[in-house]
UniProtKB/TrEMBL annotation, chain A:
Region Disordered, annotated ranges: 1-23
Source organism per UniProt: Haloferax prahovense (strain DSM 18310 / JCM 13924 / TL6)
Topology of the protein relative to the lipid bilayer: Multi-pass membrane protein
UniProt-recorded name of the protein: Peptide ABC transporter permease
SUPFAM superfamilies found in the cross-reference section: MetI-like
């Protein structure tokens, strides 16, 4: 940060340091930080069952992809009898497929690849969207803005799935990270537009105007006033983007367009569907188990995104924080929070 | 309706098409090993015989309109003029027919299910969104909202699989796939019509499931509109509830959703690729799927371009209707 403008120096300092009239001790400050950033969100999360359930589901799948992979052996053909029924043996609780591979082990070993895809896709699309949205919103009315928005509109209206299918058909990606990046290509424009309109409306707020008049550097305004306001949108949309990436990647594996190199829920569905699992009751578990996994994971993500919505809601948060000095009414507030959305 | 607004939207659509065309040209160039190497084996397996590089390049041009012999800008110019001026998308490797002919045969079938899917999904999400908002916090609201969240967590192709299982295999209400029953003569007779509708119903419903994702956003919008003064005034005037719900609440809460709906059109159209495969419904999506499976690149690029053209046309038409429901647009401001 340069301090070339001597007149703005003091004001900027004041703004950045957040100086209180009577300074608090370090312990107080830490306590307050904890209260605002950990305790209050946790309390809202407990009050809002959606965030809790969504988080629990996500944690379950994360455990499955990390610890589960160590606990359960990688399935190979002929591990177990062919097409065993589910819930009959502890060795293969969900039954087996036509190659004698236990279904639960296939599900578990497909999870890490799934998360790699989601991670790569969400990071690429959300990051790109945030970048485009913030730049366009800040350069509002300039050529940069209209150029970025034209690009966004073009990508929005290109049918994404056929484009991705053509790209994957030509490049045949095997690495889950690369698959995720490809899937992220058509997922960013919607969020970029939302971010841009958010930036535009935040820019109109009087406190941002005040910061500008005070001569606070652009980087500080972006960091303190704008990014902190945008984080909720980015997080919520990150969860929804992840859901789309699950849908599309599993869909492409289900179609058999992506190469079958690893275990994947879509690959299982493809093999089962091609083998007419729908008309053969003994093969049904092979088809249904991955479907249930996809449903659960995306349900978890949707719930989480809705829960996060209330988690980031500033008013709700203030009600749940003890610093609001109305300790006696906290119970009352919680019931309001659950009923009020 | 201002011509300036429409011209702008038209320009946008044309630009998008040009971009997609350029992308498809670049994808030909970006094929691993270049277009000649990548397509050599496919073409040779088809015609058999000599590996003469000139002949191979000529054949590639014949099929794809891209001649790897020429400098890049000449290739691009030729490709673009073939696509735009002559509506020539090349020739399929395997079916030995013009790509445009192949696609034209399939378009009506895809449009049939896509349009019904859109109509079904959007009217359902508008209706449910407004109704849940109007009865906010009632049991109806919480049940329907939970159902919608659940539905939005199921990919549309899984909705299709579940529908096939319960409605076509367990019970024989609908056929499991195809677009028309065997042995039914085409024409304006009742059996043909019924068979047509029965075959299209399940694909349309599962694609429509994708389009209901707007219901929750619609509910949020409608709740915001409910707080407006004019709704209260309408209630104080003693207007009928249905009139308030449709003309005051519905109409005003659709407006902010309109762009989202228009963007959704492209998504619903492109979902045809997966849904048509699941239902073995021979539309354009299934054609694209077959092209991927056989590495029929001219056909693949052709379907991509036509998918784009159709989505752009649909979005443009939707744009025209926007001027009908939002009077502000005719004033000329953005």
């Amino acid at each position: 940060m340069s301090e070339t403008h001597s007149d703005s120096f003091d004001l900027k300092d004041l703004y950045d340091e957040d100086i209180d009239p009577d300074p608090e001790s370090r312990a107080d400050r830490a306590k307050r930080f904890l209260e605002m950033n950990v305790v209050a969100p946790a309390r809202i999360a407990v009050a809002d069952w959606r965030a809790l359930v969504g988080g629990a589901i996500l944690a379950f799948f994360l455990l499955m992809g990390s610890v589960g992979v160590w606990l359960v052996e990688r399935p190979t053909s002929g591990d177990a009898p062919v097409l065993a029924a589910p819930f009959e043996s502890l060795a293969y609780p969900l039954g087996t497929d036509v190659f004698g591979q236990p279904i639960h082990a296939q599900l578990i070993h497909a999870t890490p690849g799934m998360f790699k895809m989601i991670f790569a896709g969400a990071v690429v699309s959300v990051g790109f969207a945030a970048l485009v949205g913030v730049v366009a919103g800040f350069e509002h009315g300039t050529r940069i803005d209209s150029f970025l928005m034209t690009v966004t509109d073009v990508v929005i209206t290109i049918p994404g799935l056929p484009l991705i299918i053509v790209i994957t058909a030509i490049f045949q990606p095997e690495n889950p990270y690369i698959v995720g990046v490809f899937l992220g290509i058509d997922n960013w424009p919607g969020l970029a537009r939302t971010v841009r309109s958010q930036v535009l409306s935040i820019r109109e707020e009087s406190y941002v105007e005040a910061s500008e008049i005070m001569g606070i550097p652009l980087s500080s305004i972006l960091r303190r006033d704008i990014l902190s306001q945008l984080m909720p949108y980015v997080m919520i949309n990150g969860a929804l983007t992840s859901r789309r990436i699950i849908f599309e990647s599993v869909g492409l594996y289900f179609l058999g367009i992506l190469p079958f190199t690893t275990f994947n829920w879509g690959v299982m569905m493809n093999l089962a569907y091609e083998g007419n699992a729908l008309t053969r009751p003994d093969m049904l578990p092979w088809m249904v188990a991955p479907m249930v996994c996809i449903f659960l994971l995306s349900f978890g993500l949707v719930l989480l995104s809705q829960g996060l919505d209330s988690l980031f809601n500033v008013r709700l948060r203030a009600r749940h924080a003890k610093t609001s000095k109305k300790k006696g009414t906290s119970k009352n507030n919680q019931s309001q929070a659950t009923g009020g959305d | 309706m201002t011509p300036k607004y429409l011209l702008k939207r038209l320009g946008q659509a044309i630009l998008t098409f040009l971009v997609t065309m350029t992308v498809s040209f670049l994808l030909y160039q970006a094929m691993p090993g270049g277009p000649t190497e990548a397509m050599r084996s496919v073409i040779l397996s088809q015609s058999g015989g000599s590996v003469d590089i000139d002949r191979l390049n000529r054949m590639i041009q014949l099929y794809t309109n891209v001649n790897p012999d020429q400098p890049m800008h000449v290739q691009y110019f030729n490709y673009a003029s073939d696509v735009i001026l002559r509506q020539d998308l090349g020739t399929s490797f395997f079916k030995n027919e013009k790509v445009t002919t192949l696609i034209m045969q399939r378009i009506p079938w895809s449009m049939f299910i896509s349009v019904y899917a859109l109509a079904l999904g959007y009217s359902l999400s508008i209706f449910l969104g407004v109704m849940t908002a109007y009865r906010e916090k009632s049991r109806f609201d919480s049940t329907v909202s939970s159902l919608i969240i659940g539905l939005n967590s199921i990919p549309y192709y899984i909705v299709g699989v579940v529908l096939i299982y319960f409605l076509a295999i367990q019970n024989n209400y609908f056929p499991t796939g195809g677009r028309i029953g065997s042995g039914i003569a085409a024409g304006y007779n009742p059996e043909f019509m019924l068979s047509l509708v029965k075959h299209a119903a399940l694909p349309a419903i599962s694609m429509g499931a994708l389009a209901t994702s707007g219901a929750l956003a619609m509910r949020g919008n409608a709740i915001r509109v409910l707080g407006e003064d004019y709704i209260r005034v309408a209630q104080l005037r003693g207007l009928r509830e249905t009139r308030i719900a449709t003309q005051y609440l519905g109409h005003n809460s659709i407006l902010p959703m309109y762009t989202q709906f228009m963007i959704g059109i492209a998504g619903v159209f492109s979902s045809a690729v997966i849904v048509e495969e699941v239902f073995a419904y021979p539309g354009m999506g299934l054609l694209m799927f077959e092209a991927v499976k056989t590495q029929d690149y001219p056909l693949l690029m052709g379907t991509l371009l036509v998918f784009t053209a159709i989505s752009l046309t649909a979005i443009f038409i939707a744009d025209l209707t926007y001027t009908l429901i939002d009077p502000r647009i005719s004033v000329g401001e953005e």
